[in-house]
Amino acid sequence: MPRFRTVGTIPPSIAVTDGRPFPRCQVAFKPAMFVTHHNCRLELLQGDLTLQAVDAIANAANPQLAGGGGVDGAIHRAAGPGLIAETGRLYPDGCPTGSAVATSGCRLPARLVFHAVGPIWHGGNRGEPGLLAGAYRRCLELAVEHDCQSVAFPAISTGVYGYPKREAAQVALQTTLDFLREFHRPALVRFVLFDAGSLQIFGDVLSRLSPSTSPLR
Ligand code: APR
Predict the structure, then answer these.
(1) What burial class does residue 114 get, using C-beta atoms within 10 Å of its C-beta: 0-12 exposed, 13-18 middle, 19+ buried?
(2) CATH T-level topology, domain 5-209
(3) Quick one: pLDDT at residue 30?
(4) In this structure, which residue's CA is closest to atom 5 in ligand 1?
(5) Quick check: CB of 128 below 6 Å from ligand 1?
(6) pTM, 2 dp
(7) What is the mean pLDDT of residues 3-27?
(8) What distance in angstroms lies between residue 115's CA and the mean position of ligand 1's atoms?
(9) Sequence ranges of the domains in the chain
(10) Which of the four pLDDT bands, split at 50, 70 and 90, describes residue 213?
């Protein structure tokens, strides 16, 4: 008996805005897959994380919380200068690899940002899977602590930090499924993959973890 099942695919026309005036959000969704797991929903989408109108988004940050390129840069640009001011004020010592810290979302549609520090890939023998799992798990703990119904993730560590995408997807999805099985929260976990290749890989991995998952279209 599978522990979770696919219940459908997401239509491309679905709105992301929850009624708020974010016209850019109309381009954030594409067809993807979702599964239900212990009454929670796990979604895979291709899109831009900064457009997501969820309670919290996770950032792929560095240990200094100093901002950077990739999704980190995009989040700071969209949030405005208040975000770097807040991380500096609340977390002057930064955040260790394998963990995460919370700030407000400033000008983002999301209420909160969880600044997660994934590992740099060194070949896989320096504790990378455990550190990556720790970053995701801490974000999910923060979501529960901050009463978030919904949280959206990028593919942490798979850009500049060089973590192979398939291995990263395995860690990200397994950690999330384990957490949802244990805590039955948050109600929605959304993975927002920037490119079609990443979405395909995350979809393949989720299909393997869930025998009843339909293939991506
Ligand atoms: N929305 C969703 N995903 C995005 C976006 C976006 N707007 N922009 C980039 N991505 C994807 C990338 O395609 C990649 O798959 O996020 C994933 C993570 O890539 P990076 O942002 O490079 O993050 P990471 O590999 O964890 O490296 C972190 O990069 O920018 C610096 O300050 C950051 O030093 C830190 C390091």
Answers:
(1) buried
(2) Leucine Aminopeptidase, subunit E; domain 1 (3.40.220)
(3) 54
(4) 71
(5) no
(6) 0.89
(7) 41
(8) 12
(9) 5-209
(10) low
